[in-house]
Amino acid sequence: MVASPLPDLVGRHRECAALDDLLVGLRAGGxxxxxxxxxxxxxxxxxxxxxxxxASRVTVTRxxxxxxxxxxxxxxxHQLCAPFxxxxxxxxxxxxxxxxxxxGMAAGDPxxxxxxxxxxLTLLTRASEARPVLVVVDDAQWLDxxxxxxxxxxxxxxxxxxxxxxxxxxxxEGQDALAGLPEMRxxxxxxxxxxxxxxxxxxxxxxxxxxxxxxxxxxGNPLALLxxxxxxxxxxxxxxxxxxxxxxxxTVSSRVERDFASRLxxxxxxxxTLLLIAAAExxxxxxxxxxxxxxxxxxxxAAPAKAAGLIEFGESIRFRHPLVRSAVYHQAAPExxxxxxxxxxxxxxxxxxPDRRAWHAAQAVDGPDEEVAAGLEQAAGRARxxxxxxxxxxxxxxxxxxxxxxxxxxxxxxxxxEAHFSAASPDRATGLxxxxxxxPLSPLDxxxxxxxxxxxxxxRSRNDEAAPLLLDAxxxxxxxxxxxxxxxxxxxxxxxxxxxxxxxPTGARATAIAARGSGAPSSxxxxxxxxxxxxxTLLADGYExxxxxxxxxxxxxxxxxxxTREATMRWLLMAPVALEAxxxxxxxxxxxxxxxxxxxxxxxxIGALSELPPALVYAGGVHIHTGDFAEAARMMDEADxxxxxxxxxxxxxxxxxxxxxxxxxxxxxxxxxxxxxxxxxxxxVSLLGVTGYVQGLLFNGLARYDQALVAARSGIExxxxxxxxxxxxxxxxxxxxxxELDQARASxxxxxxxxxxxxxxxxxxxxxxxxxxxxxxDEADDLYRIALEELGRDRVAVKVEVARTHLLYGEWLRRTRxxxxxxxxxxxxxxxxxxxxxxxxxERARRELLATGERVRARETEPASALTPQESQIATLAARGMxxxxxxxxxxxxxxxxxxxxxxxxTKLGITSRRALPGALAIAPAADTKGAGTV
Length: 935
What we know:
- The structure is a single chain.
- By secondary structure, the protein is mainly α.
- It is built from 47 helices and seven strands.
- The chain has a five-stranded parallel sheet, sandwiched between helices.
- It is globular.
- The two termini are about 45 Å apart.
C-alpha cells in the first residue's frame, strides 16, 4: 500500500499528486479549478487541508458552507473576500458599488449578481498580482445560493489569472452544485489502505477477517473508520462490541452521525445545551455563544465535548465535522431547539446583525407571531437590496408561515412566490402561489398572482398556454388602474411571439385587440406606452396603420432617460418585442442597429448579464445583415460564453441565420435539428418558423431550389410574428427557379402587402427584386436596377441583400446573353460574398462567372494566424485606446485574461505593442469564426 505524503491521508497519493500539480500550475501563473466530490466523511475536507498546507508562497482564502447559514445572501462570499476588502475602493466604479451593496457596506439598487461576480474576479486578480491566490471552499453544497452562483461564475471566467479554486461538495446533497466544472471524484479507500487506517486508529494488528469485515461495513470511508474505532482497542474489535457501539444499519454517513449522537448522551446537560447553541449559530462567534448561554442560565463548560472529540474552541467555534453539528441539532427536542434560538435572538445585536436576529426569532416561535413575521419581512427587504433573491424568498416564505392575519399571510406568500420565481425556483414559487390563492387578496394582488402563474408556465414551456393567462392578468391590472397593465400586455404579446402564432384565439392579434380595448392607464414610461400602441395597432389593423404608430415609439425607445436600474431592466425586458417589430414589420435595419446597440450598452452598464446575451444576439444579427459575419460571430461567441457562465440556455435564432448565410450545410442542419427538438420539447414553436426561413436561405444559397421551396413554404404557413416576410423572399426565389410561377406570384402578393407601408430601402429593395424575378425584358432590367438603388438608400445598408441582388441580376443577364454586363454584377457579388465568407452564395456566383467565360481564383485556405473571435474583439477594443481593465469590464473578463489574449494577438500579427494594432488589424486575415456561435 502506498501512503500519501501526509500520514493522515492514507491511500490518497493520486489525489494529492493532482492537487500538487494544481499548485505547480498556480505558482507558474496559471488558473485551475477542481471540484472534489464524494459522500460525507470520505476525505474531501482532508484534501482541502492538504492543498492549503502545501500552498507555500501562495495567499490562501477560505469559505465554508454552513447549512444554517444558507438563507443569508453573500454570507459565504463575504467570508471569502474578507482578506481583500481593503482593495474594494480600487475596483472599477460599477463593480465597487455592486460589491459594497452586496456586502451591506453601502445602500443602493440591488446589484446584478454577475456584476458582483466580476467584482470578485477583479478583486482576486488584483490580489494575485502580489502572490498567487488559492480559493478553498468546503461544503459548497451549503453555501448561500447567491454566493454559490457568484463563485461558479468566477470559476468559469478564470483563464490567465494566478488564481485557482478548489471546492469540496458532498454527494448526493450537492450533485447539481458547480456542475460542468473539472471534477475529482473521491471514493472509499481500497481495502489495504482502509485496513491500515483502522489498525493505526485502534493501535494494534487485527485478524484479517475481522479487519476486512469492518472495512467492508464502512465501505472504506475514512471518517467512519476513525470515528467507529475511537476509544476502542484492537481487542474490543476482536472479541465483540459493547452496547454503546453504533448500529451498522443505514448509510455510512448516517452511521457516523448516530455514532456522534451516541456520545452526546454521556455529556453533562449544560454541555449538551452549549453544543446545541453552537450548532444553531453558524458564525462560530464564541462571545455570542457565551451571551446566549448566560440568557439560558448555564455555565459554558466545553471541556467534556472537547474531550469527546466533538468540538474545538478558540476565538471561534468549530465542530469536528459537519455531521457533528447535524447530530447535535437533530438529536435535540423541538422545544430545546426553540429555546436556544430564542436565546440567540436575544443575544444577537439588532443593529449590527438584524437579519440573523430575525431568523433566530423565527425559529424560536411555535405558532403565528406578527412581530416575528414583520421582522422577517424587513430582513427580506434588506436581502433584496443586496441582490439576494434566494434569501429574500426564504425569509418571506417563513414570514408567511408565521403570519396570523390571513390578508397579510396572502400578501407575504405572494411576495415569497414572486421572489422564488426570480431566484429560479419555480416549484417553490408554485407552492407559495397556491398558499396565496387560499388567502384573501386585494384585486391588485390577484392580478399579480395571475401574472406569476403565467410566467411560471411560460418559463417551463414556451407554448401558447401562457399568453391567455398573461392577458387575464393584464386585464385585472387594468381594472385595478395599475400601471403594470401595459407592461403585462407587452409580456402577453411577447409570449405569443415565442408561441409562434399571429392568428387564432390565443394568437398575437387577439392579444393586441384585447390590449387596445383595455383602457389601461399609462405605465409611466413614454417608450413603453408608445411601443404597446404601435405593436397593438400593427397587429390589429395591419402595418399600413400600425407602421406610423410603431415608428413614433422609436425616439423614446432610443433616448428615454431611464434613471434607475429598475427602469433600465424594464427597458431591456421590452426591447425584444420592439426589435422583433422593427425587424420583421418595419424592415428597418437602422432602428434595429440603434435599439440593439443601446440594449448591449445598457446591459453592460448595469451589469445585467442575464439580459446581455440576447442583446448581443440582436446586435450580432445587425452585423449579419451588414455582411460582417466575423463581428456577428464574435458577439454570438460572447453571448454563448456568458450564457454558459450564468447557467442560461443559448439563444439560437441568430446562430441559425448566420450558419445558413455561411452555407455550411452540415453545421446548419445539425443546429436546425437541435432547434426543432427544442421547439417540440420546450413549446417554443416560433423556432419552427425560423427553421423554415433558415433552410430556405441555406438551400437557395446551395442552388437546391426544390428543397428551398418546401422549406420556405413551411416558414410562411407557420403564421409566425417574425420571419414570415423573410420566408416569402426565399419562397419567391425558389419558386421561380422551380418554375412554380403561381406559387411565386401568390407569395409576391403577400410580400407587397407586408412591405407596402414600410418606408425603408430594405423593404422596397427586396420587394422590387422579387418582382424582377417574375418579370422579363426591360421591365426586369429596370426592376433589378431599382432594387440596387433602394437597398443602398438606408443609413445602415443591408449588404447581404445588395450582394444577393447583384447575383440575381448577373444570373438574369447571363441568361439573356449579356455576358459582359453579367460579369460586372457577378464579379461584385462574388467579391462581396467571398469577403463575408458567405461560402454557398460565393460558390454560386463563382459558377455563374465561370459560365460567362471568366476565370475565378478559388479562395485561399484561411491562414493559421487568423484571430479567434474573442482575440479579434479584444484587439479591436485595444486598438481604440481602451485599457486592459476597461476591456475586461466591457467583456466581463479579468485584465489578466485580456493581456493573455493580447500576447497571442501580437504573435499572430507579428507586432510587439498596442501602438501597432490599428495598422496590423487593417491588413489582418478575417477572424476564424468556424464554430463560433454554435448552439
